[in-house]
Design goal:
With about 260 residues, this protein is of the alpha/beta class. It has one domain: P-loop containing nucleotide triphosphate hydrolases (Rossmann fold). About 40% of the residues lie in helices and about 15% in strands. The chain has an eight-stranded mixed sheet, with helices on both faces. Helix 5 packs parallel to helix 6. The radius of gyration is 17 Å and the shape is globular. The structure holds adenosine-5'-diphosphate (ADP) and magnesium ion. Adenosine-5'-diphosphate binds next to helix 1, strand 7 and helix 9. It comes from Alcanivorax nanhaiticus. This is ParA family ATPase. To B.subtilis soj.
Length: about 260
């Protein structure tokens, strides 16, 4: 059974891309088959995975807007990373508008992934910093949402809008969508604000907050310029260890969900 995760938060710079790339690599390191789908026109997940965003035959734009078969847009990342990728670049900016006029506009990504999802254990979708039609497509295609939250000023701002959007999509477009977890990123224990934000998250969201905390770690910020996930760039760094721990926590949560007796519906 494949699980599709959307990594979403409409705030920029909260660690969506860092989490997508490093979680993809960490899940792949546990021998899972993983596909990372970049749906941000900035293409940072593509570059950070070591792939030139201007040098692939097809990108996610071609899949969403030009009916290119999904499998033709899949590329391998450099061997050490061990996961597959569908790339994005600036072309995708046009898709935000073009999608609005298309048939089944919210379901384009879901339908595209349906063709290939059985090949993977996990599919991760790195969302743009907005609640636009691309993010709606990601949430409609996903089983579960990972919400990275930077433990800094204004971290909780916008969270209500995101939760409302997720709820609306669950009701109208994708009944199986659920919150996988809220992920504390860029955490600095010496900063009392980090602790405040973390405590607030736990009091609001309880078990929905992943136990694993991603620390602020310079290796995580450096790795993309080397085109590698941190577990390749510096496997012993705190950043690498924390994303491997997150992968472990996610696998355990998934297992626990699967072991639950099916809910009466
Ligand atoms: P988003 O995709 O949400 O916009 P990014 O993952 O691109 O956010 O992160 C924003 C910036 O912060 C990037 O420069 C990234 O390298 C850096 N960064 C992300 N997570 C960490 C971390 N845990 N420690 C240090 N720097 C980080
Ligand atoms: Mg990003």
């Amino acid at each position: 059974m494949t699980t599709v995760f959307a990594v979403a938060n409409q705030k920029g710079g909260v660690g969506k891309t860092t989490s997508s790339v490093n979680l993809a690599a960490s899940l792949a390191a546990t021998r899972k088959k993983v596909l990372l789908v970049d749906i941000d026109p900035q293409g940072n997940a593509t570059t950070g995975s070591g792939v030139d965003k201007f040098d692939t035959d097809y990108t996610i734009y071609d899949v969403l807007c030009d009916e290119v078969p999904t499998e033709q847009a899949i590329v391998a990342t450099p061997e050490d990373s061990g996961f597959d990728l569908i790339t994005a670049n600036g072309d995708l900016t046009a898709a935000e508008v073009q999608l609005l006029d298309m048939k089944s506009r919210e379901f384009r990504l879901r339908n595209a992934l349906a063709r290939i999802r059985d090949r993977y254990d996990y599919i991760l979708i790195d969302c743009p910093p907005s609640l636009n039609m691309l993010t709606v497509n990601a949430l409609t295609a996903a089983d579960s949402v990972i919400v990275p939250i930077q433990c800094e000023y204004y971290a909780l701002e916008g969270l209500t809008a995101l939760m409302n959007t997720i709820e609306k999509i669950r009701t109208v477009l994708n009944p199986k969508l659920h919150i996988g977890g809220l992920l504390r990123t860029m955490y600095d224990p010496r900063n009392s604000l980090s602790n405040d934000v973390s405590n607030q998250l736990i009091s609001h969201f309880g078990d929905k907050v992943y136990r694993t905390i991603i620390p602020r770690n310079v290796r995580l910020a450096e790795a993309p310029s080397h085109g590698a996930p941190v577990i390749t760039y510096d496997p012993k760094s705190r950043g690498a260890v924390s994303y491997l721990a997150l992968a472990g926590e996610i696998l355990r949560r998934e297992q626990a969900l699967k072991n639950q007796p099916a809910a009466a519906s």
